[in-house]
Hints:
Domain ABC transporter: 8-262
Bound molecules: iron/sulfur cluster
CATH superfamily of the largest domain: P-loop containing nucleotide triphosphate hydrolases
CATH class of the largest domain: Alpha Beta
Protein name: Peptide/nickel transport system ATP-binding protein
CATH architecture of the largest domain: 3-Layer(aba) Sandwich
Radius of gyration: 26 Å
Number of domains: 2
Number of helices: 17
Structural class: alpha/beta
Region (Disordered): 264-292
Keywords: ATP-binding, Nucleotide-binding, Transport
Distance between the termini: 41 Å
Order of helices and strands: EHEEHEEHEHHHEHEHEEHHHHHHHHH
Family: Belongs to the ABC transporter superfamily.
Amino acid sequence: MSADEPLVRVDDLQKYFWENDSLLDRLLGDEPVPVRAVDGVSFDIYEGETLGLVGESGCGKSTAGETLLRLREPTDGRVEFDGENVYDLGGDRLDAFRNAAQIVFQDPFSSLDPRMTVGDIVRQPLDIHDVGTDAERREGVRDLLERVGLSADQLDRYPHEFSGGQRQRIGIARALALEPDFVVLDEPTSALDVSVQAQVLNLLDDLQDEFDLTYLLISHDLSVIRHVCDRVAVMYLGEIVEIGPVEELFEAPKHPYTRALLESIPRASTDERERDRETLAGDVPSPRDPPSGCRFRTRCPLVIPPADLEIDQDVYRVLMTLRERIERRDISLESVGEGNRFETDDGGVPDDEVPAFVATLKARLVDVDLPPRHDAVVEDALADLAAADWEAAAERLQAKYESVCERSHPGLGDDGHPVACHCYGEASERTPEPATWR
Length: 438
Ligand code: SF4
């Protein structure tokens, strides 16, 4: 492998889980539904570097880590380790890969077998792979415990006798037992007290130099990522949306999701706390039915309006959220008004009550002042809802407000700091302003 070749190359990796896929479901004629946990992820990791993989809980980052280690079989895609596709490996070459690529799990409480002594836990990989003599294994375990900051005298103790930080050190010693080249660190400090998190991160940093390790650090915690990583890949709903050098990404984030994540970091200074902040609205959509186009569009404060539409960005965001709720039929028409005063059935509310119904619903759903031309469109759509005609309401709003962000999936570019957002692509209809966001 030459110096400019990556140690790990992940190419269009997919991992779907399937629902409605049992024999009974098939007999009943139900179609299997894919849950797209990892959906076309690509990145490289170079020897000796730490790549961070960051995103909210449930974005697929841990599944990506486990799949690239072949702890899970992929749905599609390719992972090359040292130039070989790991999904093609078998026999001795698969064993060699499993030795060279290890994982440290998030939870040091459940990842250690409580019935085994610490010595046996750390030694287990050596026994499984039949490395060295009995005496060499025992000596190797003593050495490893000392190198992760524990005492060789603690060999015969059990996990429950150790603190959380010490248990994570045991997990790290176990991962290093086979002298790997590459380690996936899956939220290695998130289950630990804040006071010991820095100690464990510093230990991982020291061990990286000592053992010539390459890391993939999976974390939802941007402070941890900034402290440890060389580059960062940001993941949202099964996809990578931005990759860049750590300082560049923190100082000049490009993707609106990255910016929102950075905004969510608690600030120490009053000035910082009081400045205007862009916050993320809405929940993460389900990976069973991800949004079309850009997956972040249902929450993106910068979702792009049609080029010929004059509209404030804030107003457009509110109208897009209204549209999405109508498309999902996520508005309770039965409870409109005090004491559910509008009776809606299949035929909708009576004609003479429609204006009051529309006004009440608009006050509940639209919390910005609408210019008259948009107000009229919204009122017409809400009148469609008064007639219980969800489709007409959705079509009316789509005809007026459809965004490039829902029609077209933004690909990740391939420059030094790629980003998957139409603000930066060929379809861009606006000038991105990353420097003024924060
Ligand atoms: S493509 Fe559109 S919705 Fe997606 S991040 Fe960019 S501006 Fe936002």
